[in-house]
């Protein structure tokens, strides 16, 4: 349900902000603010989630996300004047929701089923991405103007509101332990600690995500000037991604993660090549299909290995909230670096046709460095070890 709400509006929100403001910088600062506040919310809300009720954090995150779209509806075209406050609001919503979600995810999975679970999660996400953006693009195109955006923002807000109500039927788990504010810093300062390799690898993942999460859709719109084409782009690439996540989730085993992640990292970098041709819907579609096909090979081993690392010992499993926050800190740092790179090259975009593909290649090649940093950990955290039963806490 939440995936559908995000897919309906999230794909088109950067387009709405750009069409209203005609400013690439504003879109960048909105995303920079969103990522920064999301990371801070993870860290600050960690005590609440660990020591009190994680489900209330999840509900608050969903509620703030719904409120965000209601506020955008109320402000209309004036939303661009409040891009930073809006970024703060959606950043807080994402932080509260994903902190609780990731902790629950750790509690209900284990090394033996984590790759398969991630495959199904990616499959469901791709499934939402197949239909929802296509419907949004069709509505916006048919409505010819702001009315289409109002419709999809309204539907997303309503879905988030319903999700808050439904969340009260989710089972609350008992909270245990005391939150350690500086736990992550201590891990990074400890010589020989595997997180000294994992966190920089997570940063590399974030660098790519920081730009690709909003700029790819914006490029498709700039090349076509048609929201319907962007909806078609999302439909096609999500369909390919669905197949990719299903196959990789079904076939991937811990012992194969190292090879799979290397193939994925190299492939998602290689498929950037079409962007060096004149920017068009065809070149972007070739890039999008290649990315959707190979990204599961990179994301699934990365995610599963990091969460296996959290559960590798009884003590680390007890500190799952702190480790989830450490992971998010790496992603946040990487995303902010990526958006900063985007903002730095903006003044030069009109001077050369190679600035945009150069930026996409520069940030898009970071997964290769991420694999190099993770190569010694891939599969090892799951070998011969069982996670403890502390998930029930």
UniProtKB/TrEMBL annotation:
<feature type="transmembrane region" description="Helical">
    <location>
        <begin position="117"/>
        <end position="136"/>
    </location>
</feature>
<feature type="transmembrane region" description="Helical">
    <location>
        <begin position="24"/>
        <end position="45"/>
    </location>
</feature>
<keyword id="KW-0472">Membrane</keyword>
<feature type="transmembrane region" description="Helical">
    <location>
        <begin position="355"/>
        <end position="374"/>
    </location>
</feature>
<feature type="transmembrane region" description="Helical">
    <location>
        <begin position="260"/>
        <end position="279"/>
    </location>
</feature>
<dbReference type="InterPro" id="IPR011701">
    <property type="entry name" value="MFS"/>
</dbReference>
<protein>
    <submittedName>
        <fullName>MFS transporter</fullName>
    </submittedName>
</protein>
<feature type="transmembrane region" description="Helical">
    <location>
        <begin position="285"/>
        <end position="310"/>
    </location>
</feature>
<feature type="transmembrane region" description="Helical">
    <location>
        <begin position="197"/>
        <end position="224"/>
    </location>
</feature>
<feature type="transmembrane region" description="Helical">
    <location>
        <begin position="57"/>
        <end position="76"/>
    </location>
</feature>
<dbReference type="Pfam" id="PF07690">
    <property type="entry name" value="MFS_1"/>
</dbReference>
<feature type="transmembrane region" description="Helical">
    <location>
        <begin position="331"/>
        <end position="349"/>
    </location>
</feature>
<feature type="transmembrane region" description="Helical">
    <location>
        <begin position="82"/>
        <end position="105"/>
    </location>
</feature>
<feature type="transmembrane region" description="Helical">
    <location>
        <begin position="148"/>
        <end position="170"/>
    </location>
</feature>
<dbReference type="InterPro" id="IPR052528">
    <property type="entry name" value="Sugar_transport-like"/>
</dbReference>
<keyword id="KW-0812">Transmembrane</keyword>
<dbReference type="InterPro" id="IPR036259">
    <property type="entry name" value="MFS_trans_sf"/>
</dbReference>
<keyword id="KW-1133">Transmembrane helix</keyword>
<feature type="transmembrane region" description="Helical">
    <location>
        <begin position="230"/>
        <end position="248"/>
    </location>
</feature>
